[in-house]
Amino acid sequence: MNLSFKWGGEERVEFSQILEKLSEISEREGERVVIIFDESQELRKLKGYNLLYPLAYAYDNLKVKFIFTGSEIGMVYDFLKVDDSKSPLYGRAYTEVVANPFSRETALEFLRKGFDELNMKVEENILEEAVDTLGGLPGRLTFYGFTYMQEKDHKTALRKTVDTAISLIREEFNNFLRGREEAKDMYRTIMTVCAKGCRWSEAKNAIESKEGTKINDKRFTELLNNLVKASFLTKEGEIYKPADVMIGLAFSSTIS
């Protein structure tokens, strides 16, 4: 079922009104209403309307629950501002569920059981190559397993999965760059330099060399932190590296 609302004109509907009606339904039917915002980091781009105030009102007064999902967890927190004392949502209790990639052994077992359910016997060395190449994201492993089932060929399934993953990563990165066009070349340089891991100074030197000018330390750190928040990079000790093995592969050459 699809619902359409007018956000302008005399018949416009306020988001708070929608929440109030849903709360009324919840009380009348005795059923919990749960509203899910998928890829909720995209809500940061909402212009001309502060969604946090009706969310805070609903949290305090209405019988509705909210779930915020996102592949860029740092950006989700940037939107919700739950730790910002000036935010309408500050001080509200919440539960965080982090879905980390599978460990290597869990990923292998995931593929084994999946193929067992299909009554397909796949050699262990093939499963190991798939996991070592693709990493531990369940969706990616599922895509590989499904493609293997169709193609009946490991190399073909692996190649198609890699190509699809890289295409999605590039799409996500280009989406990340929207609104950051003035720094897009610097972001690309950072990701390329850090494709196999890099230090803060190495990435900064690479940008200064390419741009032919100095970049402020604070500004450069902000760029790095944005990439970490967006889950393109992770920091381990003094090393920044791709958050996922396929991200490293996608940025091992310049993104167009």
Structure, described:
With 256 residues, the protein is mainly alpha-helical. 54% of the residues lie in helices and 8% in strands. The strands form 2 sheets. The protein has a 3-stranded antiparallel beta sheet with strand order 3-5-4. It has a two-stranded parallel sheet with strand order 1-2.
Features:
single chain, 256 residues, mainly alpha, 3-stranded antiparallel sheet, 11 helices, globular
The coarse silhouette is globular
Mean of the pLDDT scores? 90
State Rg: 22 Å
The fraction of residues in strands falls at: 5-15%
Across the major sheet, the strand order is 3-5-4
Q: What is the ordering of alpha helices and beta strands?
A: HEHEHHHHHHEHHEEH
Major β-sheet profile: 3 strands, antiparallel
Distance between the termini: 38 Å
Class derived from helix and strand content: mainly alpha
Low-confidence stretches: none
* Total strands: 5
Write the layout of secondary structure elements.
Layout: H1 15-29, E1 33-37, H2 52-61, E2 64-68, H3 73-80, H4 104-117, H5 124-134, H6 138-151, H7 154-177, H8 184-193, E3 198-199, H9 200-211, H10 217-229, E4 233-236, E5 239-242, H11 245-250
Parallel strand pairs: 1-2
Antiparallel strand pairs: 3-5, 4-5
Helix pairs in contact: 1-2, 4-5, 4-6, 5-7, 6-7, 8-9
